[in-house]
Design the sequence.
């Protein structure tokens, strides 16, 4: 089970995931230097550590390596959520609390995910396909708030839910 990436590891992996192509230490360094002062050897060490931990694979390209992500950020996030959930002494309560923290955008993403997953669950649950649809949640209802519709999501900004 993966542990959470450190700040610099996450900054490097964010670029590898976003660019979605083989990258060099130099490319990552130049992009990171837009935000902070950092040495080539530091980035090289972090990328080597990520390789040793199995987060990236690398191929020789001349005198350098090109690094590629082994899995997606979504898979990484899912693994972290699963790890946190598996350590709960009350998984159902943990899920209820987690769902309660979700923004409207996150609840919509959950609904989309459930529409994808539920058709395959009927077999795992031992239900015929038509009964599985009856067991599925049909709608996630927003909790009432004192705020006018849309204000909470607007205040959260574009980075909410990431």
Sequence:
């Amino acid at each position: 089970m993966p542990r959470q990436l450190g700040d610099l590891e996450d900054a490097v992996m964010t670029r590898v995931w976003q660019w979605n192509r083989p990258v060099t230490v130099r490319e990552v360094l130049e992009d990171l230097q837009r935000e902070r002062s950092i040495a080539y050897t530091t980035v090289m060490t972090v990328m080597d550590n990520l390789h040793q931990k199995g987060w990236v694979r690398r191929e020789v390209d001349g005198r350098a390596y090109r690094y590629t992500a082994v899995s997606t950020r979504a898979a990484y996030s899912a693994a972290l959520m699963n790890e946190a959930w598996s350590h709960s002494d009350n998984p159902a309560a943990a899920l209820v609390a987690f769902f309660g923290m979700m923004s409207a955008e996150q609840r919509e993403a959950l609904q989309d995910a459930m529409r994808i997953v539920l058709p395959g669950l009927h077999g795992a649950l031992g239900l015929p396909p038509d009964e599985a649809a009856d067991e599925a949640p049909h709608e996630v209802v927003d909790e009432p708030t004192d705020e006018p519709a849309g204000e909470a999501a607007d205040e959260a900004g574009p980075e909410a839910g990431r």
